[in-house]
């Protein structure tokens, strides 16, 4: 996982619970907590941080990850606004994630280990994002979609009927535009 993700997680924890809480989490996990944005760090380190944040804040890990996804979208958008300004609406943005945004991310970061996302539209009001990743961070993807919907001021309903956490080989995020 790229350090920028760790940096933004740190920002969220400090904003939510304070620097003492972040330092306590690092201490419990015996981590240095110094992350360089473009450097890669073990996924297990991120998962351990999320687990300890969940324990420290007494909130379920999926709730932490989903909220982090929303926050992550807004923070990445502040750092890289060119990704959202190229698209005029939420649907166009979501459809561009794999073929445009992930291509650009690969230019910014060496070996970013991104998920594979394909989109199809079963009808004019629905977009299905098929998410494939060995990391199984589909809850983070849900949060990112909610963050994007907020940014584009587009009301949506999202369901997640197919999921790797329930034995499937991929996840389907079904986004209905209201």
- First-residue to last-residue Cα separation: 34 Å
Q: Strand-and-helix sequence, N→C?
A: HHHHHHEEHEE
Helical percentage: 40-55%
Largest sheet report: 4 strands, antiparallel
The tally of beta strands, per DSSP, is 4
Report on the structure:
The protein is of the alpha+beta class. The chain folds into 2 domains: 3-59; 88-177, H-NOX domain. The protein contains 7 helices and 4 strands, in the order H-H-H-H-H-H-E-E-H-E-E. It has a 4-stranded antiparallel beta sheet with strand order 1-2-4-3, covered by helices on one side. The radius of gyration is 16 Å and the shape is globular. The mean pLDDT is 94.
Could you give a short description of this structure?
The protein has helices spanning 3-17, 19-29, 43-57, 61-79, 82-85, 90-108, 138-151; strands spanning 116-123, 126-132, 156-162, 171-177.
Question: Keywords for this structure?
Answer:
178 residues; alpha+beta; H-NOX domain; 2 domains; four-stranded antiparallel β-sheet; 7 helices; 4 strands; 54% helix; 16% strand; globular
List the helices and strands and how they pair.
Blueprint: H1 3-17, H2 19-29, H3 43-57, H4 61-79, H5 82-85, H6 90-108, E1 116-123, E2 126-132, H7 138-151, E3 156-162, E4 171-177
Antiparallel strand pairs: 1-2, 2-4, 3-4
């Amino acid at each position: 996982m790229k350090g920028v993700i760790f940096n933004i997680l740190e920002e969220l924890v400090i904003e939510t619970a304070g620097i003492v809480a972040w330092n306590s989490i690092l201490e419990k996990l015996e981590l240095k907590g110094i992350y360089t944005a473009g450097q890669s760090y073990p996924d297990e380190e991120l998962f351990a941080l999320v687990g300890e944040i969940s324990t420290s804040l007494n909130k379920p890990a999926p709730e932490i990850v989903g909220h982090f996804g929303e926050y992550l979208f807004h923070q990445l958008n502040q750092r890289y606004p060119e990704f959202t300004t190229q698209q005029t609406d939420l649907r166009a943005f979501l459809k561009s994630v794999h073929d445009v945004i992930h291509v650009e991310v690969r230019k910014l970061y060496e070996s970013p280990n991104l998920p594979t996302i394909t989109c199809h539209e079963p009808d004019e009001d629905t977009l299905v994002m098929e998410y494939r990743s060995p990391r199984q961070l589909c809850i983070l993807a849900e949060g990112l979609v909610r963050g994007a919907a907020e940014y584009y001021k587009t009301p949506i309903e999202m369901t997640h009927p197919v999921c790797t956490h329930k034995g499937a080989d991929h996840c389907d995020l079904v986004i209905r535009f209201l």
